[in-house]
Write a structure and sequence with these properties.
The protein has 117 residues and is of the alpha+beta class.
Length: 117
């Protein structure tokens, strides 16, 4: 698998509104619309995105995620599975196809492929 870059970072928090206001007003990030995303999405100047979502699971579990860009998501998923990593089903939004997985450090990550227009 070849990682081409970082394209996404996200946080899931029980303080979503405050974090979204901080990202926009204090950090100066530009809020953008993103179809198929249930989070507040912000664009960074290099094209990467930062998302602020509510807790991921019942009980208020919070987390962060990092999205690594790959050229071929399906091949990358196969490599993760061959390495014994449990991988969610691929999902997509208006910009990306992506998949979540838990790495050996116990944290959430994503592999992301740009959607073709």
């Amino acid at each position: 698998m070849e990682i081409l870059g970082l394209v996404f970072a996200g946080t899931a928090t029980d303080r979503r509104s405050a974090m979204a206001r901080f990202a926009e007003a204090t950090l100066g990030l530009r809020r953008v619309a993103a179809e198929g995303v249930s989070a507040d999405m912000f664009a960074l100047p290099d094209g990467a995105r930062f998302a602020v979502a509510g807790p991921r699971e019942e009980g208020g579990r919070t987390s962060r995620t990092i999205g690594f860009l790959v050229a071929d998501l399906d091949s990358a998923i196969a490599e993760l599975r061959a390495a014994g990593i449990d991988v969610d089903r691929p999902a997509e939004n208006d910009r990306h196809r992506y998949v979540h997985f838990i790495a050996p450090d116990g944290e959430l990550y994503e592999l992301v492929q740009e959607r073709r227009s």
